[in-house]
Amino acid sequence: MKNILSILLSIFCLNANAATINIAKTGNDNTGDGTSGKPYATLAKAASVAKTGDIIHINAGNYTLSSGVNIPVGVSVEGDDSNTVILTSNYTNKAQSDAALMLISTTDGTNGNQHISGITLDGNNLTGYQAVVVYGRSNVKIYNCVVKNFVNGGLLFRGSYKLTKPSVPATGNEIYNCTIENCADRTTGLAGGGIVADGYAGMLIHDNISRSGGRPTNHNGNNFSAVGTNLASGLKIYNNKFYRPSTDGTLDNSFILELWDSQGGMEIYNNEFHGGTQPIDLAGNDDKSKGTYSYGYWIHDNLFDAGTVFASLPIPLVVAIDYEGSGENVIIERNNFKNYSYGVMITLG
User: Does the predicted TM-score (pTM) go above 0.85?
Assistant: First the structure.
């Protein structure tokens, strides 16, 4: 009983010390104190003084980010509404570890216990390079946000900040009720995408709208990329709507979801896939291993609509689900395929 009371007292003290730090267009970083009556002017200032458990509240307005902002562990960022709170990024650094908002821990599996919600992140017509990176952290949720017009990446989740196999995979991360538009270029040479995720054991991506398009021919990248996933398992992608141009010039392999080397429990269901020459690509050397799960991939109850008839087009491979590489334990059932040359292709590529 004494131990339980001590734990409850510790939790109470942590919550009691938590604060809401306000940002407003009328704020001032020098004279403000973060209260609602004396808000700060910038997210960078608020993040520099925030402590675990704090919530940074952004009032309505358009705020310019000329450099990346580090968000500490346990600190959440909330906007009034994604329609009225806009963070416009002019941050052009082209490293995969950099973004407009950076949630990075050097110890794999760090419990972030934080969220980002109610904001629009705008790359300012492909000026900003990446929107958000979450590296080495678990239990980070991004929801009710709009992310658009970044060069290489929208929302990037990696289990390790070193971009290698994490010692402890990330768990409890989630992206939902977001709109992600025009945030990937297939020619940058970096593994970008509207969403990028690897090094996790259990991640939820649901009820989002994702669009890849609006760029010159052959430049529209993946809606979702998990290339070299390193301990990726337990992913659930459901109730999303994905859009990509039906053709992208002379290049094939116009993927919507590209997944490599997963370790089981990967479920993709109740989604709509519109366009793309290969909406789902399952690749790698060990990408269909089921690990401790009952299946490697389970792809079911999805709609695939190419949007045009590909039979007369000079594209060598137009298939809704391309199952390549080695492995086993894949279940594909109850999907609806429309206007693709093939519904499912299996090859030991």
Answer: yes
